[in-house]
Amino acid sequence: MRPYTKKAAKYYDLLHHRDVKDATRQVKLMASLWRKKTKRVLDAACGTGRLSIPLVKMGYEVTGLDITPAMMEVAKQKKGSDKVRFVVGDMCTYKGKKKFDAIVCGSNTLCHLMTDKKAVACLKNFRKNLVRGGTVVFDLWNCEKWGYSLDGRKTVREKGVTVHYTAKDRIDKKANIHQWEDRAKIDDHGEKLELVFAGRLRWRPADKWIKMLEKAGFKHPGVRYVKDKIYVFAKA
Ligand SMILES: C[S@@+](CC[C@H](N)C(=O)[O-])C[C@H]1O[C@@H](n2cnc3c(N)ncnc32)[C@H](O)[C@@H]1O
After folding, report:
1. What residue ranges line ligand 1, CB within 6 angstroms?
2. Whose alpha carbon is nearest atom 2 of ligand 1?
3. How many other C-beta atoms lie within 10 A of the C-beta of residue 67?
4. Ligand 1 centroid from CA 191, angstroms
5. Which of helix, strand or coil describes residue 67?
6. Please, which pLDDT band fits residue 56 given cuts at 50, 70 and 90?
7. Are 89 and 67 contacting, i.e. CB atoms less than 8 angstroms apart?
8. Which atom of ligand 1 is nearest to the CA of 108?
9. Strand order of the sheet with strand 191-202?
């Protein structure tokens, strides 16, 4: 099953991004990396609006771009989302009518790009969508410190919904490819269903991202290490 189907989108926040406070902390950190005069921000691969909404609350003009309409439909139901301009599109080819002062791309999404060629092409497209001196910043799981496997089990309960979640990974260490299969047994107000989400990610160490940013024409790249994540950033 592809990871971002309509059903998966409905339960996505419950499974992956419960912590609104954490998202707010993340966008504050991202904002500390760009210029004070930053106004227009593109949330590339905005998903369910986890970063877009706190960014809007901070006063930015936010465009949320995502390739999966079902994920954005979840975002649109959230408080504050009426101020976000949502666009369906591919972040690797999207061309905004006006350039942005900053682009954020959250939660390992760039790791969905399996080849370096694709990743560099996407970064190049980000650069083209930025004003001169504008900032790109993306966060990634710190695989160098914590390893590649996200295996685990958890049970989450919220507002009448219970999810028993099992994450199972297969790691190709040579190619840094992480093939994951997550199973969620869900009880949604008595309705029972089981979902399987599967996908692939390609992990790369921080210095590899820096090289790819430079290849894409970015300047002054840098990395911040915070808890289990790294924030990679650079200037257009
Ligand atoms: C892991 S979620 C992250 C969502 C959000 N950035 C966050 O931090 O919560 C990945 C999202 O990326 C979107 N996505 C994947 N490839 C994309 C692409 N090429 N262009 C735009 N969106 C993409 C998926 O539809 C999904 O909503």
Report:
1. 4, 17, 45-47, 50-51, 65-68, 71, 90-92, 106-107, 109, 112
2. 47
3. 15
4. 28
5. coil
6. very high
7. yes
8. 1
9. 152-158, 161-172, 177-188, 191-202
* Span from the CA of 190 to the centroid of ligand 1 (angstroms): 30
pLDDT in tens, 139-166: 998 888 877 666 677 888 888 999 898 8
**Banded model confidence at residue 233, pLDDT cuts 50, 70, 90:** very high
CA-nearest residue for atom 8, ligand 1, is 106
Atom of ligand 1 nearest to the CA of 92: 19
Cβ-Cβ contacts under 8 Å for 22 (sequence gap 6 or more): none
Cα(173) to centroid(ligand 1), Å = 24
Q: Which of these, 177, 109, 114, 101, lies nearest to 139 by C-alpha position?
A: 109
Instruction: Walk me through the domains of the chain, giving residue ranges and CATH numbers.
Output: 6-143+205-235 (3.40.50.150), 144-201 (2.20.25)
Note the helical H segments in 17-115: 20-31, 52-57, 69-76
Q: What distance in Å separates the CA atoms of residue 134 and residue 235, rounded to the nearest whole number?
A: 6
How far apart, in whole angstroms, are the C-alpha atoms of residue 5 and residue 8?
A: 5
Q: Which H or E run contains 44?
A: strand 40-44
| Shortest-distance atom of ligand 1 to CA 72 | 27
Helices (H), the chain: 6-16, 20-31, 52-57, 69-76, 116-128, 143-146, 206-215
